[in-house]
Amino acid sequence: MARRNLNDLLAFVTVAREGNFTRAGALLGVSQSALSQAIKALEERLQIRLLTRTTRSVSPTPAGERLLLAIGNRFDEIEAELDALTELRDKPAGSLRLTCGDHSLQTILLPKLLPLMHRYPDIRIEFDVSYALRDIVADRFDAGVRLGESIDKDMIALPISPKVRMAAAASPAYFEKHPIPKVPADLTQHNCINIRFATSGGMYVWEFERNGRQVNVRVESQAVFNTSPPMVQAALDGLGITFLPEEEFGDHIEQGRLVRVLQNWCPPFPGYHLYYPSRRQHSAAFALVVDALRI
Prior knowledge:
23% strand; 8 helices; 14 strands; 295 residues; five-stranded mixed beta sheet; alpha/beta
């Protein structure tokens, strides 16, 4: 039987996953027109349409979905096996993709992984900063970093930080004009600085707990962000109260630039975890990253 060229299948998988010819071409290092021709040739060979194209996006047809499910993971397995072959080399090598938030990147990942990357220059790591709860399997990440409470149960989760506590804080100037909240419900009378989740598009509902009693508060927000650094700055500028893991405030609370409130309603909870699917084969480079992050 004649061997088939797999390049057009790889082109199809990449376009279907990215939903865009330009992004897929950038990943594969080929032009958009070359990709389009490859997909067209594959569809003609199979005599079935695999992709639905619009002016804004590209999505698989039912036949395309079936083909993607059948072969997509096979390419991932081949790539993982090629990376695993680096175990036979004197110097580990390979490429990894991690999704994380701003704070975990700056305080955990970079301090621990940059020394590893200096030691092993053939290890390449792509950091995707996002507050969305990404599907790391569908989005082809090797691992993600999130707080322990937000990780799916079917993932391996490795703690990489101590427990954390949330903190509600605002500037002294804000509290000169507004009363200090005594209980979480008082926050409904305040201007709050909130975050919108990229995954659901919904606003964060502030969660508190005291003596086993849980209280959720939907706050009113004049300013809404999708990352935490501008939330801290808005609080420093006197715009209102914000609610984040206490470490994200740096030394602003200790130095008096921000005033913390409702502290007895913020018990510690599981901190940052590295999570990844158990069924995926991992390379020597991935094992080194896991060891570097382990506490």
